[in-house]
């Protein structure tokens, strides 16, 4: 039996999503004019309407994409390009963005954009918004961080940017299906989501994009999805995404309470049995995330030892070519490099049970002891 604690990386597909995908899997091109195309189109329209209802926006504002990454690229690079024509300008992003946003900003920088970073405090929460007081081509801030789960002051970011007429992109990939979202009320220009984080299929996502100002595309082609995302739309993927979203929104309140309880049990149990643990997840965080450091132990050792015992968790930071790198999110929050290299991120979701938590609590003291004995490189 495996205990899976990596829901922030990807969550197992919900049964309802699998059933919806299978049912719609024969759907053909929704842009075709003949009967089978029209049938596909009506399935796609229904999925779009469902997403719009759950996200508090108009159906036309829903742009289906291949991933959260693609939605973030359009939201940041596409908005910057729409504003600047692809040269110069200014891009403001937080210092703890996922690479899908951070690299989009960096790419705009290669085309002459001035890129500036909103700092974060020791709690991993954006701490100073004054960079937003000068107009920018686009500003971007994640709603909750994928490593720490820290919830960001997104309403303030949007309000502050609005004062100078700066369009705002919100990376809500970790939040959709976990916190209530009302796109209209939020006032952001674009918002990115990814289906596999809430029990939909991997390889599907969406961008919410106001009619105006619309982002420029990053893929060019047949002009589907208002010309914002060309490419034949995956009707079956959209149908599965929509029902997974619906189920996660329906369960949201109950799951929030359940996972919050499990998280507290995990946190208190680990802190009660293991010395010298650093908690990186602040109070104001998603109920699903618990990000810890065990100074003196290498993250790789911890992850491999856990894996050998059937517990699947991640270090939280990117692992490049097998080399454990310190998390940039933690470095931005002022954590020292060694502590930032001794992390384990436990993230929970719809399949997580109390038994999973008990399994971690039973094994963790010995795992940390062994990893600390092995030491750090
Ligand atoms: N943004 C955040 C905050 C994420 O956590 C992720 C995935 O880990 C992404 C964007 C990218 O989503 P996708 O895997 O669908 O490309």
TrEMBL record:
Name the record gives this protein: Cysteine desulfurase
UniProt keyword Transmembrane helix present: no
Organism: Corynebacterium vitaeruminis DSM 20294
Cofactor list: pyridoxal 5'-phosphate
Keyword Metal-binding among record annotations: yes
Aminotransferase class V domain mapped to chain residues: 4-357
Pfam families: Aminotran_5
Swiss-Prot/TrEMBL keywords: Iron, Iron-sulfur, Metal-binding, Pyridoxal phosphate, Transferase
Residue runs in coiled coils: none
Reaction it catalyzes: (sulfur carrier)-H + L-cysteine = (sulfur carrier)-SH + L-alanine
Domain of life: Bacteria
MF (Gene Ontology): cysteine desulfurase activity; iron-sulfur cluster binding; metal ion binding
Family: Belongs to the class-V pyridoxal-phosphate-dependent aminotransferase family. NifS/IscS subfamily.
């Amino acid at each position: 039996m495996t205990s899976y604690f990596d829901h922030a990386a990807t969550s197992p597909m919900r049964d309802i999503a699998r059933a919806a995908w299978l049912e719609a899997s024969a759907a053909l091109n929704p842009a075709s004019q003949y009967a089978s195309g029209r049938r596909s189109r009506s399935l796609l329209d229904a999925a779009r309407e469902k997403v719009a209802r759950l996200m508090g926006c108009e159906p036309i504002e829903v742009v289906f994409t291949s991933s959260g990454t693609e939605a973030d690229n359009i939201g940041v690079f596409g908005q910057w390009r729409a504003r600047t024509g692809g040269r110069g300008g200014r891009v403001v992003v937080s210092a703890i963005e996922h690479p899908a946003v951070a690299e989009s900003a960096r790419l705009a920088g290669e085309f002459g954009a001035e890129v500036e970073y909103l700092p974060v405090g020791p709690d991993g929460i954006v701490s100073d918004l004054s960079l937003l007081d000068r107009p920018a081509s686009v500003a971007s801030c994640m709603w909750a961080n994928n490593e720490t789960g820290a919830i960001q002051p997104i309403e303030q970011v949007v309000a502050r940017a609005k004062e100078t007429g700066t369009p705002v992109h919100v990376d809500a990939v970790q939040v959709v299906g976990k916190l209530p979202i009302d796109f209209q009320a939020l006032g952001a220009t674009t918002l990115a989501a990814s289906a596999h984080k809430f029990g939909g299929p991997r390889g599907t996502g969406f961008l919410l994009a106001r009619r105006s100002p619309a982002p420029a595309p990053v893929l060019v082609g047949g002009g589907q999805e208002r010309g914002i995302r060309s490419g034949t739309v995956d009707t079956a993927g959209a149908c599965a995404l929509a029902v997974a979203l619906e189920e996660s929104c329906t369960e949201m309140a109950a799951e929030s309470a359940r996972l919050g309880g499990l998280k507290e049990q995990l946190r208190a149990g680990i802190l009660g049995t293991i010395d010298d643990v650093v908690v990186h997840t602040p109070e104001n965080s998603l109920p699903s995330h618990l990000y810890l450091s065990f100074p003196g132990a290498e993250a790789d050792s911890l992850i491999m030892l856990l894996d050998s015992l059937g517990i699947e968790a991640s270090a939280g930071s990117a692992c490049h070519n097998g080399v454990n790198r310190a998390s940039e999110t933690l470095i931005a929050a002022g954590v020292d490099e060694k502590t930032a290299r001794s992390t384990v991120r436990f993230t929970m979701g719809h399949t997580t049970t109390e038994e999973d938590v008990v399994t971690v609590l039973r094994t963790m003291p010995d795992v940390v002891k062994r990893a600390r004995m092995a030491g750090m490189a």
